[in-house]
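[INFO] parsing input record for DUF218 domain-containing protein
[DEBUG] input buffer:
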Amino acid sequence: MELLAILGRGIQRKTQNGEWFLTEDLEVCDEKGAHLPVRVPVDDEDPNCLVGGGRMNLDAGYWLIMEHNPDVVVCAYGARSEYLVSVDGPSESEVMSGFLDTDMLVAHDSGWKPIRRRYMGPDITTWPREKTVPGPSNTNHELQNIFELAVERKLTKVGIVTVAVHYARSLLMAQRQLMKPEFAHLELQFFVSEDVILRANGRFDQLRVLFMHGSKAFMRTMFREARGINYFLAGNY
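[DEBUG] output buffer:
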């Protein structure tokens, strides 16, 4: 693998003017399923409680870096969503990349020594908050951005990781993107974050996967994702 893309799943603050964090495994969204800028307590009985997964994607991506040693890593590689623009927030890529950089610096487990980025580790390429592209910020555009970067850097082997509920839609969109002549030469490998967490030799809390998959939020999100796939196939995404 030459390029690893860790897909975004949203960022939030814990308080109105606090620092930005990645979404937890479950999150309460607004009525349309959009992220709330300020996190509220998770309630699986709330009909607006859905799978977040920002932190889980990052944890899985961190492990994949250790396994595959990619040359380049991108996180949530796309323009800011409307909710971030509305509060003049950072790009999700900036926040996620910052957490990854910290994790890489303090890595330790089973004999691993702290990794010093100036000596080793991938190039973490960040999407800056001021950079915009035509059209809405969504998964399809994020995938296009990833593949365009691969072409620009002359990289052909691309890995992508995301949570299980997001997998089918992301894979379908990626396959459609790879039908474009400029991307047809790329070799794609997809990873499911929960699968990576479960085989990570106890590095992460594996019970969180069972909790997520057993939640009502998981089922709600699955239904929403199926609807999103139908919209995409109908050309309405």
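[INFO] The helical segments are 54-68, 82-86, 92-105, 139-152, 164-177, 193-198, 207-213, 216-233.
[INFO] shutting down worker
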